Amino acid sequence: MGKKINFIVLAALVIFSAFTATSYQELSSEIDKADTAWMLVASAFVLLMTPGLSFFYGGMINKKNIISTMLQSFVALGVVSVLWVLVGFSLAFGDSIGGIIGNPFTYLNFKNVGLEPNPNYSSTIPFLLFALFQLKFAIITPALITGSFAGRVRFRSYILFMVLFSLFIYSPLAHMTWHPDGLFRKWGVLDFAGGTVVHMSAGFAALAGALYLGKRKVAVENHANVPYVILGTGLLWFGWFGFNAGSALGANGDAVIAFANTNIASATAMITWIFYERMLGRKMSAVGACIGAVVGLVAITPAAGFVNIGQSVLIGFVAAIVSNWVIHLKNKSGIDDTLDVFPSHGIGGIVGMLLTGVLASKVGLIYGETTTFYYHLIALAITSVFTFGGSYLLFKIVDVLLTMRVREDQEERGLDLSQHGESIE
Predict the structure, then answer these.
(1) Exposure of 263 by Cβ count < 10 A (0-12 exposed, 13-18 middle, 19+ buried)?
(2) Is the pLDDT of residue 358 over 90?
(3) Which CATH fold topology does 31-416 show?
(4) Which of 140, 255, 293, 421 has the fewest CB atoms within 10 Å of its CB?
(5) Domain locations in the chain?
(6) Is 5 exposed, middle or buried (0-12, 13-18, 19+ CB in 10 A)?
(7) Residue 193 gets which letter from DSSP?
């Protein structure tokens, strides 16, 4: 019965979309072709990050859970894309309701999201392109969370969680941060490309998931495929140029600055990570280098367009040290965040957000200004409580409706076989 209901709901959504979608007019003469071309490319770059993440996570998990872990990332491309068109974009960027969330009817099913530019977001690219660029951010955020509960969550329960998280956690946070009337935006909180919206939200949701679901029965720490991890890191690094430089919303100087800062922060964090590990008497591992690179990418994200090259080096260095320390602290605590999502993305996002308040051009602490940093602290506290508490509640709700965790025998067999009937062997 449940399977039929799921299919009927999907069919109803398809029919609704077919008969209510916006009809597109000719491209406006106000559109800048260079900006539009760059944003098309940047959007494709950001989409590539989610398959990259699937390789990154898939290579780090044990062999019984490679397919399930990779699919948990990959399926977000489908689920969130449909949800974003239907109502997600409107909740994030629709007419503001109290600075917290958008009106779900403003752009319902992409109504009025066409080829004309929207000056509230960008006056040189089609509004449809802006919406699609933002979609790629919405896709990767719930996918990031999956690393915390890899190997022990039911697939259909995860899909329901992803839908609820996108609607009730991601969309309000995106609205508060990036909508012109959003609460954080009005305070002057700076998040160039998603350090708060994407990485902190995913990091705290991951921590909530790890705590709610508890430890794996058998915590296998051997990485299934280190070359997958390296490949995934390369795809993430490549895609991150679209993530950060694309957030300039045009082919302009801010895009160049963000591009340069993205590369140097990640490079700094990578070499800092492996040399710090060696200083502590550990091996300079490939996985360590990859984690360091990703931490640098995370930390520079909120600051990418607001700092200079030297400051991006500092951000990468500090983030690598702090995240490395938190990973080892987490390991001692017994919290089973399987693939270290919170230490990498949550802590990396926090470090980046705070250092943005310190270093941001003209408004940071080093320029004698305190207001921006003060509001960053307030936004950090609100985001932490909202994303952790809200996600924990969503895990509870999904658990009541569908049961989140697989049975012990299914976990023993591995999720590849128990959830998908597939295996790499």
Answers:
(1) buried
(2) yes
(3) Ammonium transporter fold (1.10.3430)
(4) 421
(5) 31-416
(6) exposed
(7) S
Query: Residue 71 and residue 415: Cα distance in Å, rounded?
Result: 11
Burial class (CB in 10 A: 0-12, 13-18, 19+), 261: buried
Structure tokens at 4: 């039929």
Residue 334 has which token pair?
């017994």
Structure tokens at 250: 């045009």
pLDDT of residue 173: 98
Kindly tell me the burial class for residue 78, based on how many C-beta atoms sit within 10 Å of its own C-beta (0-12, 13-18, 19 or more). Answer: exposed
Locus of tokens 């009817």: 105
Contact 102, 171 (CB under 8 A): yes
pLDDT in tens, 90-131: 999 999 999 999 999 999 999 999 999 999 999 999 999 999
Tens digits of per-residue pLDDT, 232-277? 999 999 999 999 999 999 999 999 999 999 999 999 999 999 999 9
d(CA 166, CA 163): 5
Q: What tokens were used for 105?
A: 């009817």
- Specify the DSSP element, H or E, that contains 96: strand 96-97
Tell me the β-bridge partners of 101.
97
What pLDDT, on the 0 to 100 scale, is given for residue 252? 97
Which amino acid, one-letter code, is at 348? Answer: G
The tokens of 379 are what?
């936004």
For residue 10, CA distances in Å to 16, 238, 360 come to 10, 34, 45
Burial 140-166 (b: 16+ CB within 10 A, else e): bbbbbbbbbbbbbbbeebbbbbbbbbb
